[in-house]
Design brief:
By secondary structure, the chain is mainly alpha-helical. It is built from ten helices and five strands. The protein has a three-stranded antiparallel β-sheet. A two-stranded antiparallel sheet has the order 1-2.
């Protein structure tokens, strides 16, 4: 069971449902079908839920939006390892979301808060707008549904908005460069084929390429962070006075 930084799951079932934008009845239904792990029982045997429950609910919602039936979702989740972290589930959800075409919806303020699972301050909305996740449209908002949950999660990241935007720019630039090179490879591979064949190949390759990029990037980032931490430890050791 993945725990929070506070040492354990902290959400009641009502709080979990509110954060995930679903009803308590839905949470209980998913639990009864084995789609969610059981809660940790706290004092007075009150169930407590954590980040892994939120991540699984987000993944289930994403698969539903892609048109998957409940039976198909159950089969899909049964194939996943039991020890996936909330981050791993978020990566998996990003892969699922990548299969769908871009989607922009117009939603009201109350609906925006419901989807975020929390009240959004004016500053939160401004940060989401700066990340191109949403834009104001009179009394409503135009929301990039594929980026919205990620944007809301970034609101809690202890980094300045300038750093987040710089990271977004770097990712976009490198992603476009990778996409350009892959597109050239595909064009060379299917130069003799017709447009329908190219479209079919792209549809088959898209989820595979996205998953490969996510997995490769995730591993590369872990290696970079490990090297950074190890270098810092080495510098501290060199700077420490010898006994």
């Amino acid at each position: 069971m993945t725990t929070t930084d506070a040492g354990g799951p902290t959400l009641t079932i009502d709080e979990l449902a509110a954060r995930a934008g679903v009803t308590v009845r839905t949470v209980r239904f998913y639990s009864s079908r084995g789609l969610l792990p059981p809660p940790v029982l706290g004092p007075r045997r009150v169930g407590r839920y954590g980040p892994d429950h939120l991540a699984r609910l987000a993944l289930i919602e994403e698969m539903q939006q892609q048109g998957m039936t409940l039976a198909a979702i159950e089969r899909h989740l049964r194939q996943l390892p039991d020890d996936l972290s909330p981050h791993d589930l978020a990566v998996h959800r990003a892969v699922v979301a990548s299969w769908a075409p871009e989607s922009v919806e117009s939603v009201s303020g109350p609906e925006l808060a419901r989807r975020a699972g929390r009240a959004l301050t004016d500053e939160d909305v401004e940060r989401l707008a700066a990340m191109n996740v949403l834009s104001r449209e009179g009394d409503s908002f135009r929301v990039d549904t594929g980026l919205f949950r990620l944007g809301v999660r970034l609101l809690d990241v202890p980094l300045s908005q300038e750093t987040i935007l710089a990271a977004r720019t770097a990712l976009i630039e490198h992603a476009r460069a990778a996409a350009r090179e892959l597109s050239e490879l595909l064009r060379d591979a299917v130069a003799e084929r017709d447009a329908e064949a190219v479209k079919s190949l792209s549809a088959h390759m898209h989820p595979l390429v996205v998953q490969a990029l996510l997995t490769t990037f995730q591993r590369s980032l872990k290696e970079e962070l490990r090297e950074w931490v190890d270098a810092g430890r080495a510098e501290d050791a060199d700077a420490a006075p010898s006994s």
